[in-house]
Amino acid sequence: MKILLRGVPAIVPFLVAGVLAGCTSPAPGAGADGSAAPSSVATATTEEPAPDGSDQPAIAACEAVELRAEQTVSGQDLGDCVAAAMVAAGSGVQRVESSDGTSDVVHFRWDPDYSMSINGAEREVVVKGETGWVRFPGQGWVQADSSSADPAVVMATSIVELVRVFSDPRVLATGFATSDTWTVVGEENPPVDDADATTTYLLTPDTPMTVMDVALSDVELYLRPDHLGAYAVGTGTFAGISTTTSNTFTQWGGEVDIPDPTEE
């Protein structure tokens, strides 16, 4: 089912998605550990403005994640922190590129309702609140409807549900936690020119990671000082198929472009 897992605003699930997109997709509703996915996004807990004077509020969940060279951080703490920082940012834009030649641009926001658009040469998806649409070649937009038996609608519903699962920040946190600890390698620039930050910290997992039976290798995560992602890359291997997927975050906060399929 080579139609869609890549375009979701999360980091570790994207690394899995590059492989699963060419294989049998997991059942809708399955989380990164095979359990049922949460039904709504995580809530960010914020405190007073950051002590460095920046506009970004301090994130309580990030207190245990110190971005300092050679520092070791818990995988669960790292996942909780990045997930909370994403929700606090409110919106974002990222580019997802895979070694199979596909590329998608993803716009997403959490407030007032969760919504997201995925735009690529092979796929277009919009999720808004409790519904979603997929544009199939030659058919236009097809709205998800779990009560429908129409094959196109069934496919659209499965894709929208998968997108919901993998875009939930709590699924992201579960993925990070599959490595008990991560190491902050040090301050390094992301290996792309258009990430929204040049001052970043490179983190790598200390133990092998497996998410939904997909073995992850060569995982690199570049975080801004406020714990938001700037770039992530890794290779996922499943059933002998390996795919490298990168995620470049080009914007955090601000306006995003999410079309309304009902107006087209």
Automatic annotation (TrEMBL):
Residues 1-21 form the signal peptide. Residues 29-46 have a biased composition (Low complexity). Residues 29-56 are annotated as: Disordered. Keywords: Signal. This is Lipoprotein.
